[in-house]
Design brief:
Distance between the termini: 27 Å
Structural class: alpha+beta
Radius of gyration: 14 Å
Order of helices and strands: HEHEEHH
Strand content: 5-15%
Length: 87
């Protein structure tokens, strides 16, 4: 999961891509795992009472609030020498 957040964060940070949230339709048994990683439940009525709960992660605010993911982002930020090809 750190990889997906890192790629999305770099797209936002380096390219200015409008990538703000990651969403998942979680297995019932994985909801607590995603909550520990900083995901929040989507509370809109269209998402309530679903077999696979819908959750989202704020890419911009998330890493500062959740050290578990913040520490793994170091591998995917622009200071590692790898950049997205913009051509």
């Amino acid at each position: 999961m750190g990889y997906a957040v890192g790629v999305a964060f770099r797209m936002h940070d380096e390219l200015g891509v409008g990538c703000r949230f990651l969403t998942v339709d979680s297995d019932q048994d994985a909801v607590e795992f995603y909550k520990k990683m900083g995901f929040q439940m989507n509370l809109h009525r269209d998402y309530k009472n679903r077999k696979y709960p819908s959750m989202h992660y704020d890419i911009v605010a998330g890493p500062q609030r959740h050290p578990k993911l913040s520490s793994s982002l170091g591998n995917y930020r622009s200071d590692d020498g790898a950049r997205f090809n913009t051509h």
